[in-house]
Design brief:
Elements lengths: L5 E4 L2 H12 L7 H23 L12 E6 L4 E6 L6 H8 L7 H10 L6 H7 L10 E9 L6 E6 L4 E7 L5 E8 L3 H4 L10 H12 L6 E5 L5 H7 L23 H12 L7 E7 L5 E7 L15 E6 L2 E4 L14 E6 L8 H6 L1 H24 L1 H15 L1 H5 L4 H7 L2 E3 L4 E2 L1 H6 L7 E6 L3 H5 L5 H5 L5 E3 L2 H10 L1 E2 L2 E5 L9 H4 L4 H9 L1 H8 L6 E4 L8 E5 L6 H9 L9 E5 L4 H12 L4 H15 L7 H13 L1
Parallel strand pairs: 2-8, 11-13, 16-17, 16-19, 20-22
Antiparallel strand pairs: 1-6, 2-3, 3-7, 4-5, 4-7, 5-6, 9-10, 10-13, 11-12, 14-15, 14-17, 18-19, 21-22
Bound molecules: adenosine-5'-diphosphate (ADP).
The site of adenosine-5'-diphosphate has 16 residues, from helix 2 and helix 3.
């Protein structure tokens, strides 16, 4: 049994953060109170969640409360909660290391801002439990995990080590005692305010934590104030915070700062959100939602079991985090709270999945969010661009999975254009040339690579816009959707592309000449082991050769993706297209009329040139260089 006091070292990153907490000058030192209250409130939330599946803990969180005590005699500020608590192992892994998602970025930002004041950085990041060392030079954490009878005491002076020993709490929860920095002269700037004053603490709670859903009680335990206390003794204990959930208050009464604080509270994100969404549904299904679009992507955005950001409340009682059931997968970046009037308090995930109410909420939220995005796109294009850059690739998944809203989501897409910058599908359609009935796109590479594709040449010449689709998901949604409005999507890498009628006629003199010459047949025979077919191109203007795909075009990226998923897809059948107007092709054709000796060389050269143009490696680089040198010499 680990009953004795043991000494541990902080993990090295934690050490650095602690050093900083202790030695920096803060523009806003108050944040440590907010951070600790937020942890306390999370701990009670966790207990509630545990109670749903563990009979023994059921109901324990019903009387969740947070107690803050100042003691002038001991120079301490104490924050207690009756939440989930921690075991000895928890203490080591949670308080001895830094596991917060943003720590790496935090440390990086810190490195960059080395000489500047670190204070604002810490204010922005809010570095959780460690911020207690802003105001304290010794911190003691006494804690007992719910469902166990073991209490542990964690203690540190923030000097690189901490100890853990036995303690004796009567019940589950955590009490954090901060021994406030005393040496005012030396540390004057460190602690700007008197954190032993109940007025000061009350002010901080009101400012940062008013919405916390558990009552926060504040007490002065100083003997010095004994008299004052006695007078107050018969007064009923009143929480300092209003506990009024932000989403229940009229929007006009809530300040933007309060909304931002709440965002911080639920996400632990240090950056302000990009957009806030409030929603109130009345009628047969009643619920309120307060949602946010973050301004940076969560780490797990593309993890298979990544978290969703919706917290479910039922009639103001917190029920669960990560409520996947209430929001479609492609909106998983949304953070916030949904408070239902109709669901039963002991709802489980299984029940939630089947409840009619869930479907109604999910539908309404989806509608609302898509509406907000549409408005944002119209009214705040710069912010929308930022949004799109971060979350566009996720939103596009909705075109595949949410058929009902497919058209709406397609209209929200910002897509790279061969004409530079980004366009929307609606703008694309309104910019079509006369007679154009298709939406042309190219994919299978980064936008940068696609911009240089020779397949764009004829389109550029004819002033037809082509969408440059650089995300892997693009290929999937475009094949899924097939069309936008009445217009089919057409890959310009496909074997037969349907150009607007007016474009077809003009170009065929050289083509006819080549067709008659038998040259194409010769080239085809010479490299038949490497490609499916050789054709005369109508899409090339300046380049000699390119590859096009037979049948459904599948990009090399997609091929790799399917292969990695273990899926069998038919071998690629590529067609080599040659530009009849290009001098190299013409030279080869002239040679072909004399004899066939060099045909294989020419074939290989064209294949290599097409590979290069597609941004692919040349399979036989050495032969290619030799051949090319030989040709140039001739
Ligand atoms: P964060 O809260 O962002 O995870 P912190 O450094 O504030 O980071 O806390 C680290 C971890 O310590 C928390 O995730 C939680 O598991 C645990 N913890 C902190 N405070 C408490 C508390 N009052 N009760 C229970 N666990 C806590």
């Amino acid at each position: 049994m680990a009953k004795k006091v043991e000494k541990y070292e902080f993990q090295s990153e934690a050490k650095q953060v602690l050093e900083l907490m202790i030695h920096s000058v803060y523009s806003n030192p108050d944040i440590f109170v907010r951070e600790l209250i937020s942890n306390a409130s999370d701990a009670i939330d966790k207990l509630r969640i545990e109670g749903l599946s563990n009979q023994e803990l059921s109901g324990l969180a019903d009387n969740g409360r947070i107690d803050i005590t100042v003691n002038k005699d001991q120079n301490t500020l104490t924050i207690s909660d009756n939440g989930i608590g921690m075991t000895r192992e928890d203490l080591v892994s949670y308080l001895g290391t830094i596991a917060r998602s943003g720590t790496k970025e935090f440390m990086e930002a810190l490195q960059k801002a080395k000489s500047a004041s670190n204070s604002d950085l810490i204010g922005q990041f809010g570095i959780g439990f460690y911020s207690s060392f802003i105001a304290a030079d010794r911190v003691v954490v006494e804690t007992r995990k719910a469902g166990t009878d073991e209490t542990s005491i964690w203690e540190s002076k923030g000097d690189g080590t901490y100890t853990i020993g036995p303690g004796n709490l009567d019940s589950n929860g955590t009490t954090i005692t901060m021994y406030l920095k005393k040496d005012k002269k030396k540390d004057e700037e460190h602690v700007a305010k008197d954190y032993l004053s109940t007025w000061v603490i009350q002010g901080i709670i009101k400012q940062y934590s008013d919405f916390v859903t558990y009552p926060i009680y504040l007490k002065d335990a100083s003997k010095k104030d004994e008299k004052k206390k006695e007078n107050k003794e018969d007064k009923k204990e009143e929480p300092v915070n209003s506990m009024k959930a932000l989403w229940t208050r009229p929007e006009s009464e809530v300040t933007e700062d309060e909304y931002k604080e709440f965002y911080r509270h639920i996400t632990h994100d240090w950056e302000d959100p990009l957009e806030r969404i409030t929603y109130k549904a009345e009628g047969t299904t009643e619920f309120k939602a307060l949602l946010y679009i973050p301004s940076r992507p969560p780490m797990d955005l593309f993890f298979q079991n990544g978290k969703h950001g919706i917290q479910l409340y039922i009639r103001r009682v917190f029920i669960m985090n990560d409520c996947k059931e209430l929001i479609p997968e492609y909106l998983r970046f949304i953070r916030g709270v949904v408070d239902s009037e109709d669901l039963s308090l002991n709802v489980s995930r299984e029940i939630l999945q089947q409840d009619r109410c869930t479907a109604v909420i999910k539908n309404s939220l989806t509608n609302k969010i898509l509406d907000v995005l549409k408005k944002m796109k119209q009214d705040k294009p710069n912010e929308y661009k930022k949004f799109w850059q971060i979350f566009g690739v996720v939103l596009k998944e909705g075109i595949i999975s949410d058929i009902k809203n497919r058209e709406r989501i397609m209209k929200l897409c910002l897509l790279d254009s061969s004409k530079g910058g980004q366009t929307t599908l609606e703008d694309y359609v309104s910019n079509m040339v006369k007679g154009q009935r298709k939406i042309y796109y190219i994919n299978g590479g980064t936008t940068e690579q696609l911009t240089k594709s020779p397949k764009l040449e004829t389109f550029k010449k004819r002033d037809i816009e082509v969408l440059l689709l650089g995300d892997t998901v693009d290929e999937i949604w475009i094949n899924n959707a097939g069309k936008f409005g009445e217009y089919d999507f057409v890959s310009i890498s496909a074997e037969n592309i349907d150009l607007p009628d007016s474009a077809k006629k003009e170009e065929n003199k050289e083509k006819e000449k080549l067709e008659k010459s038998g040259f194409i047949k010769k080239i085809k025979e010479s490299v038949s082991d490497l490609i499916e077919d050789v054709k005369i191109s109508t899409r090339l203007v300046d380049s000699p050769a390119c590859f096009v795909q037979k049948g459904e075009p599948i990009s090399p990226q997609m091929r790799n993706f399917f292969k990695s998923m273990g899926q069998d897809i038919p071998e690629e059948k590529r067609i080599l297209e040659l530009n009849p107007n290009h001098p190299l092709v013409q030279q080869a054709a002239v040679e072909a009329e004399k004899d066939d000796a060099n045909m294989k060389d020419w074939g290989e050269i064209f294949i290599a040139l097409a590979s290069i143009a597609d941004g692919e490696p040349v399979t036989n680089g050495k032969t290619f260089t030799e051949l090319l040198s030989k040709m140039i010499k001739n």
